[in-house]
Amino acid sequence: MTGTSSERSTRRTTEGKATANAGKQAERAADRRTRVTVLVALAANLVIAVAKAAGGLLAASPALLSEAAHSVADSLNEVFLLAALRRSRRPADRRHPFGYGKERFFWSLLAAVGIFVMGGCFSFLQGVEALRSGGEERFSGYVAGLIVLGVAFLAEGASLIRALHQVRRQGGTAGLRDPALRTVVAEDGTAVLGVTLAATGMGLHMLTGQVVWEACASLAIGALLVYVAYGLGREARDQLIGEAADAETGSRIHAILAAQPEIDSVEALFTMKTGIDSALVAARVDLVPGLDSERVEEVAVRIKRSIAGAVREADQIFLDVTDRPAREAQESPAATGERGGA
Hints:
The protein is mostly helical and 342 residues long. The protein has helices at 2-59, 62-87, 103-133, 142-169, 179-208, 212-240, 247-258, 293-310, 326-331; strands at residues 263-275, 278-287, 314-321. It starts with a helix and ends in an 11-residue tail after the last helix.
């Protein structure tokens, strides 16, 4: 009987390790694809930023200069995202026992700040300055400027298509859980729309001779960038301060716990994302009466393995065995580990 139980335990351990290794390989493959996507976006933005800046200076175009600032901000953000990809996969150590997965959230927050300051604020300044001074109407460079915008539209569109293709390969909206990929999609989508606004403003300026059209285009680009920066920053903030795993994951974990014959009730369940594909799980459970200490330990190990096998992102699992009423447990959720967990 003992031998049979030991064999089952060994088999579950082996299967769990195989599943974990397969998951890590899939994560590394996804990281490689994301890195290529970010590098493509970086190369496109660097070339386009130089072209937009040259065209903006030649045509004295506030809309084109706003787009140049936008591309510079995007280029810097891609550098941040590359740092996030490299640093977030470092293994856990003594100072960071839960790993470095939240590095991605931190660097994506810096990217959002970069979009706001370097892109949005500069675009607003360009628009206000054009309205105040009236702008210098030099149409000789506008044709070149529109050509630059056309090339930028194609380059940004190609980068956006690459990013959207990767999102689809990684499960559609589920792929947007990665802040690096989410930021690239937001940047490229905003860039395509921003180029369209800049070209429209320049074209109307050429047709009417009124710089107000370009000023409005710059202000619209600035508002667009601020909106995108706010959205990305809010997502990063929520994840940095400790966002719970999605509701579906929480429900699956709760169902696994409730299905265990040794668990009388699940008093409390807490989850927190520690990375894009990792989460901490802490549960307070009330066991059925009559279990001795050895049996409790065996049950706890089995339950943890069950959760880890069914929920891939649950890489840190803590169980606290208690006999307190559920109401009392819910009144002190911060006290998850105050009693000796199994």
